[in-house]
Structure formats: C-alpha cells, structure tokens
Amino acid sequence: MLNWLATLFLDPITLTGFQRALLLIPICLSISIVYKTLKNPDLRSIPLASLGLCVTIVVGMWVVAVVLWILYLLFA
Amino acid sequence: MPEPANDSSFFRTPIAIVLAWLIPGLGHIYLGDRRRGGILCATVTLTFLIGIAIGGVTVVSPVKPSQNVVSRTGAPVMTSSWWFFAQALNGSYAVVTYQINKAVTDGNPTDPRYYLAWPSGDVGSVYTGIAGLLNLLIILDVLVRASGTQVPLPKTDPSGSPHHPQIRS
Description:
- The complex is a heterodimer.
- Chain A is mainly alpha-helical.
- Chain A has one domain (16-75).
- Helix content of chain A is 78%, strand content 0%.
- The longest helix of chain A is centred in the last third of the chain and has 30 residues, at 46-75.
- Chain A is flat, with a radius of gyration of 18 Å.
- Chain B is mainly alpha-helical.
- Chain B contains 6 helices and 2 strands.
- In chain B, helix 1 runs antiparallel to helix 6 and helix 3 runs antiparallel to helix 6 (120-147).
- Chains A and B meet through helix 1 and helix 3 of A and helix 3 and helix 6 of B.
C-alpha cells in the first residue's frame, strides 16, 4: 500500500480519452467550495450552494465547448 | 476616531497572512473561524494532492522543458513554467513538493528521464496551480477579516426594508 502511494505521487498516471473531461468536475467542485465558504456567512448552506455552483460551471463549460465544436464543424 | 493599534493587533494581520500562506485555512483558524478554516484547508489540500497524484511531484518545478522535446513516454511536453508562480502560493505544500522533486530528479529536472508525461503533467500543473490561486483568494479574505475592513452586503428582511448590519471592527 505504501509503495503504491509513493509510486502514485512520484510518477504521473496515464490519462486517456474521456477521463480528461471528467477531471473537470473535481476542480470545479474545489473552486465552488472555496468560493462559497468565503462568501457565505452561514456554513450550513455551503454544501448545497457549492453543488449548485459546481453544476452551473460544469454545464456552462460543456455548453461553450459544444457551441465551439459546432462552429468548428460549420466553418472549418 | 480609530483607537491606536497595540502590539498584538499590529502583528495580528501579518501573522494571519503568513499562516494562511503556509497552510491554507490556518489564517482563518488563527482568527478564530475554525470551521471555515477547516473546510478551506481540507479543500485546497485535497486539490493540491489530487494534482500531485495525477502528474507526480515533478509538476511543481520552475524549470520546465520547451515544447520541442518529448517526454519519457514519447508524448510531447506542453507545460509552462508560469504555473510555478501559482503553485508557490500553496506555501509549505509547494516547498515540500519541490524539495521532493529535487531529490527525485537529482537536482536536474531538465533531464529527459524526468520530463512530464502528457496530458497527466498538464492536468497536474493545472490542479496544483488552481490550488495556489484558491489560496490567494483565501489569503486576501484573511487580510480583509484581520484588518476588519469587511463591508457586508446589505440584506433584505422579510418586510422588504433593507437591513444594514454593522461593520465588524
């Protein structure tokens, strides 16, 4: 277990295909939690507010990506 | 007229900022907001660790090879040393990781054996860099809270009339 952990932090893991897109979710969740923790005076409202902001960011970025992809297909 | 600051309040802000830089969230804990500091510490620490787990310790380095070289896996290297400025905002995390990086690469991070793999290296750089930029937000929040200049947003009570809470000192 310790060897696996040491290897994990020393060597890069192999990422393929759709895994890169899925890695958008944890980073957006981190940004959402930090932002809402700094802004919200009530800590109990943080989980729901963070989840809502995270979904908004991820969906927004996917919409932008799809629009740019369609524009690329139309004009490339 | 503001009261003259005594020694303890004079050093309170710089100590809180340094603690916030050293370990994310520690500045808030120092200022007495333990639960908020704990949440911030856990979130930024986890983000940084995920970045290191994805890209390895070599993602935290000011020296990166140019785009014309390939990694040890044969994939092109597309990282930027600009991310190091963001990573350095993680304080002790960046210092410790960079020391491990130097030990692993024998102080020669430009050796082709230690070039970052793509895309793991880029994703790791982004995660650790974003963790640093989030800590910059936390440091700025600590600065505002410690200096007592936070201006709260006006709230509206159920009757519809605006409610202006007092500014904390």
